[in-house]
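Entry for the shared binder. Reason: the reviewer on the internal report wants the predicted structure included alongside the sequence.
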Amino acid sequence: MSRFPTRTADSGAVVVRPEGRLDMVAAPDLRKTLHALADGSAPRVVVDLGGTEFIDSSGLGALISGLKAARQAGGDLRIAAPSTQVRTVLALTKLDRVLRSYPSADTAFDTER
């Protein structure tokens, strides 16, 4: 189904881990993966960005689209372990206010902020 590795965290959330560049090439696949999870039985999703070295507007769009799909399904999407480049892009676009980051995918749904 997905080119991105997935697993289930102890919290029950599904963790998706894109690797490398999250750009116009990879973003459509991530969007499809996130929508499939939200439409299925996993509306609580964590995108582990620990292996993502670069993100552009296409990647941001995929994350926001996945967030919207998850929330419409009664769940949520959270991001974990973003690299410095990803944190910088989120801050510059002010999307860090919408997509709050957590230190680890395993703890993203453990505590409420």
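Summary line for the report: The chain has three helices and seven strands.
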